[in-house]
From TrEMBL, chain A:
Residues 1-23 are annotated as: Disordered. This is Uncharacterized protein. It comes from the Bacteria. The lineage of its organism: Bacteria, Bacillati, Actinomycetota, Actinomycetes, Kitasatosporales. Residues 13-22 have a biased composition (Low complexity). Residues 1-12 have a biased composition (Basic and acidic residues).
UniProtKB/TrEMBL annotation, chain B:
It comes from the Bacteria. It comes from Streptomyces palmae. This is Uncharacterized protein.
Length: 160, 91
């Protein structure tokens, strides 16, 4: 079963009471990989919403140069999640893995983990290690519950 | 304006040159929006002086899709430069 599409990218849930302090949210989202007929395979990435509701993405992918198969190493990226960014897909399946004050500040930890993974120059493989391994790892290493909105995400089992 | 066949362009520098031919420095945000609409690009609003857009690129592997990631840098509402890089997405 796939996760629900995310709520609007900004703004709080309808009917939410007054906030008791800063509140943030962390989602894991999935986009479908094109190129394999009939087989639903997904790319996972992480979205962090800051206290104002602004979304930021954290993701990995192939660098595209060198390495086994020519995929290169795992290259990580992060930034404001807007149209024109690599994983932009507002209706993507999504699952919220953490929300509330405890989620605030996890973005800094995600950036630290992405830098560590980049520096390790890990060869990318479609079956893993890959972008799904990056998503799982940044959750695992920062104390965020590890869950995903879709079933088939090769590499999810690998912690980098 | 002829439709750009983004997937036929092989290098980021080639994409940048094609964009600058249509959007020379000094173009304003409305010109960028018009171009983006005509070429069916997905673009952000200006944020911090940057309009981000993406265009389809030719994938090299069955499980990895590619996009051209375009950053139009504005100063005082006018285009000063365009940066392009390839963004790859796989499992």
């Amino acid at each position: 079963m796939e996760g629900r599409p995310p709520e609007a990218e900004t703004g709080r849930e309808a009917g939410a009471g007054p906030a008791a302090g800063p509140s943030c949210q962390i989602d894991v989202r999935a986009t479908k990989i094109r190129g394999l007929a009939g087989l639903p395979i997904y790319h996972l990435f992480v979205i962090y919403k800051d206290p104002s509701g602004s979304p930021y993405f954290f993701r990995g992918g192939p660098s595209g140069r060198g390495g086994p198969g020519g995929y290169g190493s795992i290259k990580c990226d992060h930034g404001a999640y807007t149209p024109g960014t690599v994983d932009w897909e507002p209706g993507a399946p999504s699952t919220t893995v953490m929300s509330g004050p405890a989620a605030c500040g996890k973005d800094t930890s995600f950036i630290r983990e992405l830098s560590r993974i980049d520096a390790a120059s890990i060869p990318y493989q479609p079956t893993g290690p890959n972008s799904n391994s990056v998503a799982r790892t940044i959750l695992n290493k920062t104390g965020v519950p590890e869950d995903k909105p879709v079933m088939i995400a090769p590499g999810w089992g690998q912690i980098l | 304006m002829a439709r750009v066949e983004w997937k036929r362009l092989r290098a980021a520098e080639e994409v940048r040159a094609r964009l600058l031919a249509e959007l020379p420095p000094g173009s304003d945000a409305s010109a960028i929006r018009s171009f983006a609409t005509a070429q069916r690009l997905e673009c952000s609003d200006p944020v911090g002086g940057v309009i981000r857009c993406s265009a389809p690129a030719r994938g090299r592997w069955p499980l990895v899709s590619a996009k051209w990631l375009i950053e139009c840098r504005l100063e005082d509402g006018r285009l000063v430069d365009i940066a392009v890089r390839e963004g790859l997405t796989g499992p």
